[in-house]
Amino acid sequence: MQKAEPHLFIVFGGTGDLMRRKLLPALYSLVTQELVDQSFRVLAVARDEFDEGAYRSWAQEALDEFAKADGEAMHKWCNSCLNYFAIGKGEADDFAGLRKKIEEVESAHELPGNRAFYLALPPRVFPATIEGLGREGLNEAPGWARIVVEKPFGRNIESARELNKLVHQYYDETQVYRIDHYLGKETVQNLLVFRFSNPIFESLWNRDRIDSVQITVAETVGVGTRAGYYDQAGALRDMVQNHLTQLLTLTAMEAPAAFEADAIRNEKVKVLKSITPIKDSDVVFGQYRAGHILGESVLGYTDEENVPEESETETFVALRLEINNWRWQGVPFYLRTGKRMKERRSQIVVTFRPPPVSLFMGTNQRPISPNALILTIQPDEGFDLRIEVKKPGQGIALKTESLDFRYSDDFVDLPDGYETLLHDVLTADQTLFVRGDEVEEAWELYTPLLAGGHTIHTYEAGTWGPGVSDRLLAELGDWWVSL
Ligand code: BG6
User: Fold this and answer.
1) CATH superfamily for domain 8-150
2) 168 is catalytic
3) Which among 7, 181, 243, 423 is annotated as catalytic?
4) Does the global pTM surpass 0.70?
5) CA of 132 relative to ligand 1 center, distance in Å
6) Measured between alpha carbons, how far is residue 186 from residues 19, 216, 221, 271, 373 in Å?
């Protein structure tokens, strides 16, 4: 694998949860795999008045909790490779101070001036940070400068356009890495490999053979301690506009001209452009009430910490849409996501058309189940191809069985998505990042649904969401495939 050039990795939000749980372990893993140079240094930036020693202890604790590695070596790495800068209120002087600190670290470790800036920040401070960097000239560097922006990128089409405009005032698109961590997941990347290296499936991947596609991302967790953000966002902004839409475009896109960032992203954008506007009647919004998950009772959404009692924020969305192009016209795509659902499960279910004539109908007291391909993103990553077989014995009776593949049977640990994505930033591979026009196309699609005024159906925690979501499928003769 390609090794990153010597550089300084600068994280805004350096004392935050993302740094603690994901970024530090991922960076350390790149170190242990020797995918970064020995001179690699990290500069954490945050408001907290830590001195460097205190920051290093904080980072050691984080790695002890979240990294799978030898403690002593990790602690040594923290002491020699982590630096800290307190950015105060983020005013012009503070950014000037940051520039000085960057230059000091670079000169102490003879770094050539390549810089990656990661904004692991709440979205409301993206603009001020981008401007602060730009005004101080930190959008350019003696070597290369790249900026990584976490999701959500905007709150609707207008704010996404504004944010893109601001980003492009200082950076050209090749410097910008918009993160959607779903794209870092092995099984999501495998979608491309699965589709474009196994022509037996690709030749069936169209409206002639496929009846419908369902994409579910179900979580058992609730809002946790994130109400401040989540109550303003809701499931449509938090999950559908980004993660589910990425799964959708990868499932539906045409084969790219080459396995290259822009070729792939062009095809994804074409899918988004071909989606027919989604009507209000094609969407069901829900919010969880109290219930039980895996035997434990859990609170309803409006009883969670810091959630306003009268909140109408959706924690569940189900919708159907149509991709009006030659490959997919007439094939319904159903998307569904929710918190506090029955199981943690992300799956894409591709249901094929039934046989034109059902020879066996009626001999079996049940109709034939259509063939279905189930791609499981998480947990027990892998896939199942559901087929009909004859039950042994006299007469003809059918049974649905699966041909399956589980990653865990053949591979030990799957790398965390962040590790893959950080390595890509450092080696300038934008394939798994969302391009500016792509993020705008996605917002264009969902912004009309954000207007409010729709019914929020409650659902019991520990279920598959409000029963009315079945209607979206039943109207077209479909049903949620049981997972
Ligand atoms: C995040 C959302 O982007 O993805 C969270 O903000 C959600 O609300 C999380 O829980 C799900 O990610 P994963 O990798 O656990 O499926």
Assistant:
1) NAD(P)-binding Rossmann-like Domain (3.40.50.720)
2) no
3) 243
4) yes
5) 29
6) 21, 17, 22, 22, 18
